[in-house]
Amino acid sequence: MGFAWQNWLFKRFKFQGEKKLKESDVLIFMYQQGYLFAVLILITFIAGINYANNLILGFCFLISAVLCISFYLTFQQLYALKIEVHCQEVGQVGEELHLDFYFSQMHKKSRYLWLKADDQLHKLALNDLKQSFQLSFLADARGQFHYPMIQIFSVYPFGLVRAWTYLNLQSFSWVAPQSSMAVPENKNMHHRFEQDVDEFRELKAYSEGQSLQAVSWKHAARGQGLYIKVFEQYQEQHEVEIRYDYMPSSSHEEKLSLMMGLAEQCDHLNCAYSLYLPNVQLPSASGEKQLHQAKLLLAQAE
């Protein structure tokens, strides 16, 4: 029975990114105190009939009207509300994925809603024609991240009735591997991230104001004067090749994590890099867009 109910919910409330709630999208029924309220209506009705007391019957009809009005007002909290959801294209293991909600309504009125997703419960107060809200999820595994069923409901104004709807998101996010730092010298790179003191292109005479860190102290100790080391890799090599086959690990996931770490390191140094995976490659480039594409490629790697 439970499986059949879940299957019906998934099919009935498929959400493709944007929807304006109609009558068929909103479910409504009594909620918590509403059951006690219904019992009170029943008791006052029986007492009014038995004792032929018009005052008790009048009170019974009054609270019955309050319950009926609650159904209407609570239903109006969700009806005709336009909902748009945008999910983050790619994230990374150990970081949060953001789901952005955009609510809009034709006429300005107050709506008091609750948004529930797994163990998260958030209260929303919509008072403007357009408002936004962001929901965060922790990405704990590489690959596709499918968002849970989102429930939006209201118990306004008296808490007697609940109106609710579901959003079964058809979109998903990709999760890139967590970055892992490789050893400083690696076969997969033409460029090296640390200077090798034994490999340089030439020596230049030291000028006042230059950093003493680049001074060749070996020559200074021999009494040959002060010279600055000019390194080959920093002046002539500007491209890094990050190859899957050269990663120092036998584990597929560890290889991807090492590649992710190298890509982030290249991005930090603002140097161009390319990725080579078994079945696909990313051309050499640099910048934010290149890092985004690298994350997407590593997230999709099989």
Give a verbal description of the structure.
- The protein is α+β, with helices and mostly antiparallel strands.
- The protein is built from 7 helices and 18 strands.
- The strands form 5 sheets. Strands 1, 3, 7, 8, 11 and 12 form a 6-stranded mixed sheet that branches.
- Helix 2 runs antiparallel to helix 3 (54-78) and helix 6 (252-269) runs antiparallel to helix 7 (288-300).
- The longest helix is centred in the N-terminal third of the chain and has 25 residues, at 54-78.
- The protein is elongated.
- The relative contact order is 0.12.
Topology:
Elements: H1 2-12, E1 14-15, E2 18-20, E3 27-30, H2 33-51, H3 54-78, E4 82-87, E5 90-92, E6 96-104, E7 111-117, E8 120-126, E9 130-138, E10 143-146, E11 150-154, E12 161-169, E13 172-176, E14 202-205, H4 217-221, E15 227-230, H5 232-236, E16 239-243, H6 252-269, E17 272-276, E18 281-285, H7 288-300
Parallel strand pairs: 1-12, 5-13, 16-17
Antiparallel strand pairs: 2-4, 3-12, 4-6, 6-9, 7-8, 7-11, 10-13, 11-12, 14-15, 17-18
Series of secondary-structure elements, N-terminal to C-terminal: HEEEHHEEEEEEEEEEEHEHEHEEH
Helix content: 25-40%
Mean pLDDT: 84
In percent terms, what proportion of residues is strand? Answer: 25-35%
How many beta strands in the DSSP annotation?
Answer: 18
Give the overall form: elongated
Structural class: alpha+beta
Low-confidence stretches: 184-199, 233-237
Count the DSSP helices.
7
Q: The biggest beta sheet, please?
A: 6 strands, mixed
N- to C-terminal distance: 36 Å
Q: Calculate Rg over CA atoms.
A: 32 Å
